[in-house]
Amino acid sequence: MLLTKRIDVLNQAKQKHPERFAHGPPVIQRPADVVYINPALSSEDGESIESGVNFPTLPRANAI
Known about the structure:
Elements: H1 2-16, H2 58-62
């Protein structure tokens, strides 16, 4: 639904301003299915590796 609306809008823009589309008609790509800020590491066999929390300054923070 969203992709079809986006295609329609870009096609209308191309009709009104063809000079803005010098490299050909607009191409719509699907957004990614999954987006990570910090993706989980995985081992060679495909299992996720749990590295735990990595806070090198945590002992000093608890001392306060």
